[in-house]
């Protein structure tokens, strides 16, 4: 039971770190090439949404394994 909570926590921490890295890299890219900001922002939002989806799936699986 405790392992399910640890697994859910690790999934959330991993997602937070991944989205933070994507955001930081996108800001660096936009600072270097401002004319591509729209394309970079779109790609960043799509990648963040995919990471959130995987994290939510991992949390659900961890909580189902708890039962």
Topology:
Layout: H1 2-32, H2 37-66
Helix pairs in contact: 1-2
User: What letter string, H or E per element, gives the SSE order?
Assistant: HH
Residue windows where pLDDT falls under 50 for at least 5 positions: none
List the total number of helices: 2
Separation of termini? 8 Å
> Roughly how many Å is the radius of gyration?
15 Å
Subcellular location: Cell membrane; Membrane
Keywords: ATP synthesis, Cell membrane, CF(0), Hydrogen ion transport, Ion transport, Lipid-binding, Membrane, Transmembrane, Transmembrane helix, Transport
Family: Belongs to the ATPase C chain family.
Transmembrane segments: 42-65
Question: What this model shows, in words?
Answer:
- It is a multi-pass membrane protein.
- It comes from Flavobacterium pygoscelis.
- The protein is mainly α.
- The model has no long low-confidence stretch (mean pLDDT about 90).
- The longest helix is centred in the N-terminal third of the chain and has 31 residues.
Task: Compose a concise summary of this entry.
The protein has helices spanning 2-32, 37-66. With 67 residues, it is mainly α. The longest helix has 31 residues, at 2-32.
